[in-house]
Automatic annotation (TrEMBL), chain A:
<keyword id="KW-0966">Cell projection</keyword>
<comment type="similarity">
    <text>Belongs to the UbiH/COQ6 family.</text>
</comment>
<dbReference type="InterPro" id="IPR000689">
    <property type="entry name" value="UbQ_mOase_COQ6"/>
</dbReference>
<keyword id="KW-0999">Mitochondrion inner membrane</keyword>
<dbReference type="Pfam" id="PF01494">
    <property type="entry name" value="FAD_binding_3"/>
</dbReference>
<feature type="domain" description="FAD-binding">
    <location>
        <begin position="282"/>
        <end position="366"/>
    </location>
</feature>
<keyword id="KW-0809">Transit peptide</keyword>
<dbReference type="InterPro" id="IPR051205">
    <property type="entry name" value="UbiH/COQ6_monooxygenase"/>
</dbReference>
<keyword id="KW-0496">Mitochondrion</keyword>
TrEMBL record, chain B:
<dbReference type="GO" id="GO:0061542">
    <property type="term" value="F:3-demethylubiquinol 3-O-methyltransferase activity"/>
</dbReference>
<dbReference type="InterPro" id="IPR010233">
    <property type="entry name" value="UbiG_MeTrfase"/>
</dbReference>
<dbReference type="Pfam" id="PF13489">
    <property type="entry name" value="Methyltransf_23"/>
</dbReference>
<dbReference type="GO" id="GO:0005739">
    <property type="term" value="C:mitochondrion"/>
</dbReference>
<protein>
    <submittedName>
        <fullName>COQ3 protein</fullName>
    </submittedName>
</protein>
<dbReference type="GO" id="GO:0010420">
    <property type="term" value="F:polyprenyldihydroxybenzoate methyltransferase activity"/>
</dbReference>
<keyword id="KW-0949">S-adenosyl-L-methionine</keyword>
<dbReference type="GO" id="GO:0032259">
    <property type="term" value="P:methylation"/>
</dbReference>
<dbReference type="InterPro" id="IPR029063">
    <property type="entry name" value="SAM-dependent_MTases_sf"/>
</dbReference>
Length: 412, 286
């Protein structure tokens, strides 16, 4: 918003609990928190000059994504027809650094309060009466008071803004945690493919960071996650490799029917099946980079209220299996910024529900289907029961053979 | 000198303000800022009338500062009510003077803008009729906005002449109002007031509606050149306004005051000029 031409005369404050993040010089080791950035999100970041900084720091584009099942041979491959970049794996710290630089560029309009925390909110009444101020008042931990026409809550899935605004949240904790780590591959490779395999305990994903390093995101049961964290390096690496390579979960029945289905597809659509490739093998892991965090799903019943808007994880929280969490948030930003920019150019009161509701409708329509689909996929793939495996096997194989659906999924 | 014409207007004892109309608005003076209340249709009208004013002025000027597109523009909002239109214009950078004959309206408007430090300086409200400010505000304003007002005034011709006097040459006049047609009676009064309550009952009188042709005629004969006339349509289901081809019900108009000073355009009123010859020469000689 600070870079928006219609916001030149406006004043924006950003409350950030953490310290200022600078990257000078860049550490050699990769951070263990990475995000898969979609092309749409990259466009957003480049619209205000942050993407250039990301490119000048470091990122890894990937061209292909292979997703397959541990219980069968079923597999789906995503790639762009023109062999362009499907997405980018970027460390979260790199994005933060790029954003910090661009915030500095509009310091006259955007004031960032590092290390601050809001401790009290005074909500304005909807219909304006004589003495009460129509502004939203915020009290900070250090005693300072701010007043604003619009408060945007971007404070994560435990959003305090959401709680204070008394917006109900539908949430569900998964019985899974995600283990992350930075891995080093056995041998250098082009490493421009993202790999994800659905194990009965949860999906394991390998996201490329460089020609020799990849990031691990392994969603699994809490107990298994704790075990993984406690293992020594060799056992940890072995677990990862066998998770990707072993066929222990296959059953003959499923393999046979799967093969039959595949031949049927080959008859109907010769190009509809692809050869399953194997991901690179892992040799080492940065032991200090191992971490675990619990997973859950959430969706706020309302994204907006008078003078309040929620974006990102504060509004919706999703399982990492689709790599979409942060991209949904970026999508929220594009939409909200567009509506606020138009409102500013119309001279409207920025906290007015009229345009905030337009944002809510647009995003809820978009987000709800993706969040629901991700949840369904998570549940569907959390089992090794034959009927469900068959269902998802055929489903996956069929989807792989149908370009229109695949294209829609990858560009969502 | 313009003393003579002004004096002549004042000596006619009626003004453009209709006291019966004032009473209608008195009751609702504090309801202006309830976005979902009686004035909700006016709130949503901002979504088309503000861009209309903004874009017309931008296209006529060299100002490319999109953060403050109306900066440096002096606007008079006649019949400003609670300031519903003055505030967005102020936010876009204009210096706005809002006048309304009803004191309670001005009080509401003043109070609402007082909470915003930026608007409090950019907007000035005065409880006054248009004629009352003419003397001290000759050729002061770049733009006059008379939105949803001309259907309430008693003497439209005088109203327009006063607009011409306080407007700078080549200044813009924006009017939004309601046409006088069968359709506007059905939709504007029967449906809007009696059936759906979009507008408070009794707000409008069909007799006072102004057809665009008549408005254009009055404007042209007062030294204005009408540039644009657009029909407006209100959708009660969505609560929003849109532009439309037909001007049968609501419409918006943009006119520009000609450079040549004076109340009549030279070609149209030759006979008028001849008969006024003595006073005109007396004026210029002085």
């Amino acid at each position: 918003l600070g870079h928006d031409v219609h916001f030149q005369e406006k004043k924006i404050a950003l409350l950030e609990a953490g310290p200022r993040k600078e990257y000078d010089p860049m550490p050699d080791g990769y951070s263990n928190r990475v995000s898969s950035i979609s092309p749409g999100s990259a466009t957003l970041l480049s619209s205000f000059g942050a993407w250039e900084h990301v490119c000048s720091l470091r990122l890894k584009p990937f061209r292909r994504m292979q997703v397959w099942d541990a219980c069968s041979e079923a597999m789906i491959v995503f790639e762009k027809e023109d062999l362009g970049d499907m997405g980018y794996i970027v460390e979260n710290d790199v994005i933060m650094c790029a954003l910090t630089r661009q915030l500095d560029a509009v310091a006259d309009r955007v004031e960032v309060f590092y290390g601050s925390r809001a401790v009290g909110y005074t909500w304005p009444l909807l219909s304006h009466s004589c003495d009460t101020s129509p502004w939203l008042q915020i009290e900070l931990a250090d005693g300072r008071r701010l007043q604003t026409k619009l408060l945007i809550g971007a404070d994560g899935h435990n959003s305090i803004v959401r709680k204070e605004a008394e917006i109900k949240n539908i949430e569900h904790r998964y019985d899974q945690s995600a283990v992350v780590a930075t891995l080093h591959l056995s041998e250098a490779t082009d490493n421009n493919v993202a790999w994800q395999r659905f194990l009965p305990t949860g999906p394991i994903a390998l996201l490329p960071l460089s020609d020799t390093a990849s990031s691990l995101v392994w969603s699994t049961s809490h107990e298994h996650a704790a075990e993984l964290l406690a293992m020594d390096e060799e056992s940890f690496v072995d677990s990862i490799n066998s998770a990707f390579w072993s066929n222990v979960n296959h059953s003959d029945f499923i393999d046979t029917t799967g093969a039959m289905f595949r031949s049927a597809i080959t008859l109907l659509k010769p190009s509809g099946t692809a050869v399953r490739q194997l991901p690179p093998s892992v040799a080492k892991v940065d032991l200090e980079s191992r971490a675990v965090f619990p997973l859950g799903m959430g969706h706020a019943t309302e994204y907006v209220q008078h003078r309040v808007a929620l974006i990102g994880d504060a509004a919706h929280r999703v399982h990492p299996l689709a790599g979409q969490g942060v991209n949904l948030g970026f999508g929220d930003i594009v939409c909200l910024a567009h509506h606020l920019s138009t409102a500013a150019f119309n001279g409207s009161d920025l906290g007015s529900l009229k345009h905030l509701l337009k944002f809510e409708t647009e995003r809820q329509r978009h987000n709800v289907s993706l969040i629901a689909a991700t949840d369904v996929l998570k549940r569907l793939y959390s089992t090794s029961l034959a009927p469900l495996v068959l269902l998802r096997t055929w489903g996956l194989q069929a989807t792989n053979a149908l370009p229109p659906i695949k294209v829609r999924i990858s560009f969502y | 000198l313009f003393r003579l014409p002004v004096k002549r207007l004042f000596s006619a004892s009626h003004s453009s303000v209709d006291s019966a109309e004032i009473k209608k608005f008195q009751l609702l003076a504090h309801k202006w800022w309830d976005e979902e209340g009686e004035y909700s249709a006016l709130h949503s009208m901002n979504d088309i009338r503000v861009p209309f004013i903004r874009d017309t002025l931008l296209s006529m000027s060299n100002n490319y500062n999109l953060g403050s597109p109306l900066s440096g523009v002096k606007i008079l909002d006649v019949g400003c009510g609670g300031g519903l239109l003055s505030e967005p214009l102020g936010r876009l950078g204009a210096s706005v003077t809002g006048i309304d004959p009803l004191e309670d309206n001005i009080r509401t408007a003043d109070q609402h803008k007082s909470f915003d430090p930026v608007l409090a300086k950019r907007i000035q409200y005065k409880s006054s009729s248009l004629e009352e400010i003419v003397e001290e505000s000759m050729e002061t304003f770049d733009v006059i906005v008379a939105s949803e007002v001309v259907e309430h005034v008693a003497d439209l011709e005088m109203f327009i002449k006063c607009c011409s006097q306080v407007l700078k040459p080549e200044g813009s006049l924006f009017i939004t109002t309601i046409n006088k047609t069968q359709l506007s009676y059905v939709l504007g009064i029967v449906v809007a007031e009696k059936i759906m309550g979009i507008v408070p009952d009794g707000t409008h009188e069909w007799e006072k509606f102004v057809p665009p042709e008549e408005l254009e005629r009055l404007l042209e004969s007062s030294g204005f050149s009408v540039k644009t006339v657009n029909g407006m349509l209100y959708n009660p289901l969505s609560g929003s306004w849109s532009w439309t081809e037909s001007t049968s019900v609501n419409y918006a108009l943009h006119a520009v005051k000609s450079e040549a000073q004076g109340r009549s355009s030279p070609t149209e009123a030759l006979s008028e000029v001849e008969s006024e010859q003595p006073s005109a020469t007396a004026g210029t000689a002085a």
